[in-house]
Amino acid sequence: MRVEFAQSMITLFDKHPEMVFVTGDLGYMALEKVQEKFGEKFINAGVAEQNMVTVSAALAHEGFIPWVYSISPFVTIRPYEQIRNDVCLHNLPVKLVGNGGGYGYGIMGATHHNIEDIGAMRILPNMRVYVPFTADDVAQSVAMMQDDPHPNYLRLNVGAKIPTPVAPFATWRKIKDGTKGVVVGTGPVVENIYHLDAAKDLEIWVLSIFPITELPNDLIHSVNQSKKIITIEEHNGECGLRETLSYQLMNHLTSPIKILSLSAHGYPSGKYGDQKWHQAENNLGGPGLKQEVEHFLVTP
């Protein structure tokens, strides 16, 4: 999605001269054309992320729209106090962009992974979190963020590829019908369950904007009919999709249901690999995911 994000910056700049691009010393072989387009409005803040966010808050206060780019943990976890105090409490339109959410940076290890970012960002005042599903979602989400007067966080990853058309970017999208249960997921990891044979008769939804304050009526109806729901996220279940969806859903249930939560659990083996390896180790992909879903569906 990084290529699509860079192209979106270039396209939007002609219409929005108030845009400023701020990077934390990243973007080699990816942002050169963005730098050329933005000229003096392209700022390399160096490896000084707290200062990068505070400077961006000041630029936003003066009427600019700063887009602040780095690897996901470096633009969310490291400068968290500055995001809370300087950006969110003042409701300034600073746009944080984190590349490689989840296990996206693979063998680089836990310091470069981020399985807490959605939860950490969605609970901040005035913040909206955007999580594209496909690469085509990126340009649409960036355009929405540019027009959003509030602080935003964009989580980039490798876009999902599924054979059926996907509706335009929105908070809620149903990407597949089914009757045996409902899947609600966020981010490209939903692709893994979509391709399972066991998911052929599952209804699948993608959630792409946090926080959520309401659920689609069709989703509520399907959950009450099938009485089974699976959540999937490349993120901790605590403070993530599982937790926020469960709270919203409880007010709409007509009878007890069964829930299977598929989420990141860190590093069970203490070893590192590529993104697919970490997904498989956490039952978010591979044989573990298949076994979890099949067992859940046959359990009364």
What descriptive keywords fit this protein?
alpha/beta; 7-stranded mixed β-sheet; 19% strand
Shape: globular
- Please give the count of helices: 12
Which value, in Å, is the CA radius of gyration? 19 Å
Instruction: Give the % helix.
Output: 25-40%
> What fraction strand?
15-25%
Largest β sheet strand count, sense and barrel closure: 7 strands, mixed
Q: What class do helices, strands and sheet pairing give?
A: alpha/beta
Let me know the average pLDDT: 95
How do the SSEs run, as a string of H and E?
HEHEHEHHEHEHEEEHEEHEHEHH
Main-sheet strand order equals 2-1-3-4-6-5-10
Number of strands: 12
Regions with pLDDT < 50 over 5+ consecutive residues?
Answer: none
* End-to-end gap: 40 Å
What is the fold's blueprint, element by element?
Blueprint lengths: L1 H12 L5 E5 L8 H7 L3 E3 L4 H13 L3 E7 H5 L3 H9 L6 E5 L17 H6 L5 E3 L5 H12 L4 E5 L15 E5 L5 E5 L3 H5 L8 E5 L1 E2 L6 H10 L1 E6 L7 H10 L7 E5 L12 H7 L4 H13 L2
Parallel strand pairs: 1-2, 1-3, 3-4, 4-6, 5-6, 8-9, 8-11, 11-12
Antiparallel strand pairs: 5-10, 7-9
Helix pairs in contact: 1-2, 1-7, 3-5, 11-12
Description:
With 300 residues, this protein is an alpha/beta fold. It contains 12 helices and 12 strands. Strand 5, helix 7 (136-147) and strand 6 form a beta-alpha-beta unit. Helix 3 packs parallel to helix 5 (80-88). The protein starts with a helix and ends with a helix. The model has no long low-confidence stretch (mean pLDDT 95).
Q: Can I get a quick summary?
A:
The protein is of the alpha/beta class and 300 residues long.
